[in-house]
Amino acid sequence: MPRLRFLVRGVVQGVGFRPEVYRLALEAGLCGTVWNHAEGVTIEAQGPADALARFEQALRESMPLPARVEAVAAEAIPEVPAEVDFRILPSGPGGEGRAVVPPDLAVCPACAAEVATPGERRHRYPFTNCTRCGPRYTLIERLPYDRPHTAMKGFPLCPDCEREYRDPLDRRFHAQPVACPTCGPHLTLRSPAGTVLAEREEALQTAATALVEGAVVALKGLGGYQLLVDATSSEAVGRLRERKRREEKPLAVMFPDRASLELDCELSLAEAAWLEAPEAPILLLRRRAGGAVAPGVAPGNPRLGAFLPTTPLHRLLLGAVGRPLVCTSGNLSDEPMAYEDAEARARLGGLADLLLVHNRPIVRPVDDSVLRIDGDGPTLLRRARGFAPLAVPLALGGPCVLALGAHQKNTVALLKGGELIMSQHLGDLASLEGAGVQERTVTDLLDFFGARPERIACDLHPDYASTRLAEGLAKAWGVPLTRVQHHHAHGAACAAEHGLKGPVLALAWDGTGLGADGTLWGGEALRIDGAAFSRIGHLKPFPLPGGEVAAREPRRAACGLLWATQGPGEAPPSLAGAFSAGDWARFQTMATRGVNSPLTSSVGRLFDAVAALSGLRAKRGFEGQAAMTLEFAAGEQGEGTYPWDLQDGVADPAPLVAAVLADVAAGQPAGVIAARFHGALAELALAWAKRAGLPDVVLSGGCFQNARLTALVQATLGAAGFRVHRPRRFPANDGCISLGQAAVAAATPIGR
Ligand SMILES: [Zn+2]
Ligand SMILES: [Zn+2]
Questions:
Q1: Least CB-packed of 164, 420, 606, 723 within 10 Å?
Q2: What protein residues have CB closer than 5 angstroms to ion ligand 1?
Q3: Which domains does the chain have, with CATH numbers?
């Protein structure tokens, strides 16, 4: 009998891969063995040649999600004549040290069907899961990944679950969070004061009725508390916004099923695949006119953050409500998401009318991921549930590095053995809660991946919580600390993602980050070569009267930009209404005297200024809103551009500002101005690319979340022969900073 040995690589551990191989082998009448090890999974299979061929084809082509087979290597080996059965062997060396902390995955079709079928043991059971789906990262306390080390330790298996857990032919073989109505967690409905109002099915039905009637319900979900309201009710949405102090920022919507989602959103084939993928991110989809979702959910936005129920609990609740629900993180604006019960009651009691909770602890907070499909592929905007903490192989050698990331949209990254392990999106670190979550996340990653960092990396900014944590750890461990300039990190992140080794031009355009010269950078063209960078181009700096405050008020950026490019003077008519008497003069004086008016070269602030000058938005409700308003206004307005005064790579926007003012005075629609402004930025990108003269250009920074800008820069540079690389698997925004810091620190020669 022939015998083959297969080495299978990809996402093949902790996803029910070995039981599936076992089933396939039994079906094909093969004997042999299967085991996990550091490289992946090895299978030895022996039997008739045609059965082996069918088995190999199934391995390559039809392993069920969430397993992802990337490579199968096969070789013939000598027959083992005495073998009579197929066995799952204990893991080999390293087998339980690598891919053993799997991400949380959306409910699989088999579990969903079980929950929906009357007579099944788990009919309508909200905590149903198996090896292919359910919570993992959110419930693992420590390794090895066995039930006593998880949030399920307080739920001993009943005999029925125990039998499934021990049976290699069952899809719950070694599924650590396995549970059923007899032995697992259950639902409780509480009042904001904590009174128990109902339990189990009655709790779910009462919450559903309240949602239909317009209540705000806090739901203890998979990775944290979420706030839910009826997405079709303007009144309910308004109530949520008022309580959450989130006036205009778009809210995500969970739809009961794909059919109801398609009434509100357009769905391409690629989008549909992501919608139903185990990672189940929130997708930014194009809205259809006349859908059921209230306009206040995403005012003025042509896209809607939409997703399907990710757990049986969400499926049952959405099914009972029978309409789309706003589903947003349980927090006040900018605070981290609540995930512990006592903390959630304290923080969300005032926001929610009811709390639908359960008794399975959430070990760590994991938010929903956000993804957008552009013309040429997917882009992750927030990397969390379904992705973290999957290790991503990157061509980065060198020492083990821990990188602490940025101040906003923080993530933490660990570089070890050529793999990058990025934490889930942690959010802003300004609050004590945020800083605490970051510290616990560092401990988690080091424990789970058995890492002893030889270097630490952080931002240049001395006052960030992440910088202070990095300094403390470097001192405690006696390892070097590498401080990485913010935009250097942005460029290095995109270069690392695409495996670019040589020097590249990085266009790093964002809000602001501390520059090497002490000013606020954000419109940078950097030549990056490993640990070194040089600034080959940037916007000519302009003052931001009020500093930090200016970041929330586009009119201040406009005032500072006019002061710098036109000299001190009166407010133009399009801006006059945005300033109360005295404000304009006060801001101009601040700029003239240099009082609390830091200089910036930020493209993000230039977007703010142009949005204000064109009359689109003088004050913004949330970060990036002014830029989004310009992007959406540009819509289908065609092309066009504005001039720059470029000298030695320094781009003076004075001619651009003059042209914008002339267009405003001539009554050009804001959309035309917006389209020309995008065109001007693409021209600037091209000028800088020619100046750098490097074939590879990487794009990074929050401005490249703008789909129009990104596509235009890509097309313009591509037509001129440059290879343009954009962030894909990691965000363009500050979520990628930890990756860039790790890449720079790994490339930094020892002693620096
Ligand atoms: Zn399942
Ligand atoms: Zn059970």
A1: 723
A2: 108, 111, 130, 132-133
A3: 3-88 (3.30.70.100), 187-358 (3.90.870.10), 373-486 (3.30.420.360)
